[in-house]
């Protein structure tokens, strides 16, 4: 989405643009998403994402309204504002219509959109990027000279070696909750051109999903996501809680991949089932019974009439049932007494003491990576010295520094920094034009050129 946004923005203002995409259709994982959202203020985003780059956080919050206006300007349906992930505000958009509108703008302006294509290398001379060399879907080699080249390939979650090295050794166990083509091509190309990776240990955006139930239908990604886990209790294979679950299922997923065998048990009582498993996660979204879905799709599940039933968890599951039962009992005693809980339960300190208990095995699934090429507020890729790499832009999941083990909206970040990238590319085309400092480069890719 970041690449297409930049391409459409630059095309609409007169740039000659080439979009190169490895996939057979443009749009990437944006096709599976539906909400353009982020934090409402700088202060809220700083609380959610304290270790993110303050300048990038400010651009995201400040650029959100312009991004919504941009989407509307293309004639794409935009819904009413709703609350997202407790602290966010956002609007549902028709992402398929948005992708089609951006594609149409590029085509109508005379730009090229090449799908099923590959980029072999960036053209680098004296430390500056001047375009790229690649191959079209029929194997034809082509060179594109450009004043700006934008990297926007969607991250590196599809590459097992990169995820093992940059996220966690267990990361290759995670199923993809995303498109299969975002596999680090942009990261590698940008690094070869002198761009720097950062921040180390930033993590990824994903969610807990039903363990070993195939994520074989992108339209079912949301239905297989255990959003309700932030009101449940989550245990690892040692029988320990390892995070404050109430901070968000997406954060529990990040922590879960670091647990033994990257598998966890999610335990809900009847209260959590009634209020959260069967309730609306986002206003206007039809609830799905994930426990019933687990049963129908062949996942690992159990219905416990009492806490004593946990003592009889099947041994082959690999979880110490007696330890988990004792852990729930201790938690309930402390929760009823209003005592300090460890880990804490900041947003839902109520006990889980209304049987029966709904138990499913879960694992983390990855949507996109946070660590990427360091970028500034103008979407310019930065080198190890902190200076922009001339001619190279980066946006979307290929850009690092915005989120660090935290999350506040992927589509919004793609749209906001995609617009910045398009404006920066226009400035690079015509240096006398003042585009309030937006410089961007993409290759997902999108390559504004003149």
SSE topology:
Elements lengths: L1 H11 L3 E6 L13 E4 L3 H7 L5 H20 L4 E7 L3 E6 L1 H14 L3 E4 L2 E8 L2 E8 L5 E5 L3 E3 L8 H7 L18 H8 L4 E2 L5 E7 L22 E3 L13 H8 L7 E5 L1 H8 L12 H8 L3 E4 L16 H17 L19 E13 L2 E3 L5 E3 L5 E7 L4 E2 L9 H20 L16 E4 L1
Parallel strand pairs: 1-5, 9-18, 16-19
Antiparallel strand pairs: 1-20, 2-4, 3-4, 6-7, 7-8, 10-16, 11-15, 12-13, 13-15, 14-15, 17-18
Verbal overview:
The protein has 450 residues and is an alpha+beta fold. It has two domains: 280 residues, 3-Layer(bba) Sandwich (FAD/NAD(P)-binding domain), CATH 3.50.50; 163 residues, Succinate dehydrogenase/fumarate reductase flavoprotein, catalytic domain (Flavocytochrome C3, Chain A, domain 1). The protein has eleven helices and 20 strands. Strands 11, 12, 13, 14 and 15 form a five-stranded antiparallel sheet that branches. A hairpin with a 2-residue loop joins strand 6 and strand 7. Helix 1 runs parallel beside helix 11 and helix 3 packs across helix 11. The radius of gyration is 23 Å and the shape is elongated. The chain starts with a helix and ends with a strand. The C terminus is likely disordered.
């Amino acid at each position: 989405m970041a690449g297409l946004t930049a391409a459409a923005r630059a095309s609409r203002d007169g740039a000659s643009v080439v979009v190169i995409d490895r996939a057979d259709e443009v749009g990437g994982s944006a096709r599976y998403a539906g909400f353009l959202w982020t934090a409402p203020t700088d202060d809220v985003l700083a609380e959610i994402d304290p270790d993110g780059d303050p300048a990038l956080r400010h651009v995201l919050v400040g650029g959100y309204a312009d991004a919504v206006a941009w989407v509307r300007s293309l004639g794409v349906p935009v819904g009413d504002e709703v609350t997202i992930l407790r602290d966010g505000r956002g609007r549902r958009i028709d992402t398929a219509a948005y992708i089609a509108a951006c594609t149409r703008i590029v085509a109508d302006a005379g730009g090229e959109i090449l799908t099923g294509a590959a980029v072999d290398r960036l053209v680098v001379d004296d430390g500056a990027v001047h375009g790229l060399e690649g191959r079209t879907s029929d194997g034809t080699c082509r060179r594109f000279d450009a004043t700006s080249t934008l990297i926007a390939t969607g991250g590196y979650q599809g590459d097992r070696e990169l995820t093992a090295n940059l996220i966690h050794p267990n990361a290759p166990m995670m199923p993809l909750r995303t498109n299969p083509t975002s596999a680090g091509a942009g990261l590698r190309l940008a690094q070869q051109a002198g761009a720097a990776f950062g921040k180390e240990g930033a993590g990824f955006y994903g969610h807990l999903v039903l363990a070993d139930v195939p994520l074989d239908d992108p339209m079912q990604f949301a239905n297989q996501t255990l959003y309700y886990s932030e009101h449940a209790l989550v245990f690892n294979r040692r029988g320990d809680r390892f995070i404050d679950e109430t901070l968000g299922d997406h954060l529990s997923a990040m922590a879960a991949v670091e647990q033994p065998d990257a598998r966890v048990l999610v335990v809900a009582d009847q209260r959590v089932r009634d209020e959260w498993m069967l309730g609306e996660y986002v206003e206007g979204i039809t609830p799905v019974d994930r426990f019933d879905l687990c049963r129908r799709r062949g996942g690992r599940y159990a219905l416990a009439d009492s806490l004593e039933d946990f003592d009889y968890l099947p041994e082959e599951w690999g979880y110490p049932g007696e330890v988990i039962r004792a852990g729930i009992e201790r938690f309930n005693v402390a929760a009823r007494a209003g005592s300090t809980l460890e880990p804490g339960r900041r947003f839902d300190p109520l006990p889980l003491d209304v049987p029966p208990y709904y138990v499913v095995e879960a694992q983390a699934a990855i949507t996109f990576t946070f660590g990427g090429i360091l970028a500034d507020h103008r979407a310019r890729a930065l080198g190890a010295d902190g200076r922009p790499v001339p001619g190279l832009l980066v946006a979307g999941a290929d850009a690092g520094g915005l989120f660090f083990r935290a999350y506040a909206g992927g589509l919004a970040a793609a749209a906001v920094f995609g617009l910045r990238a398009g404006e920066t590319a226009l400035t690079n085309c015509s240096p006398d034009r003042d585009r309030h400092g937006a410089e961007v480069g993409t290759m997902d890719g999108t390559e504004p050129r003149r």
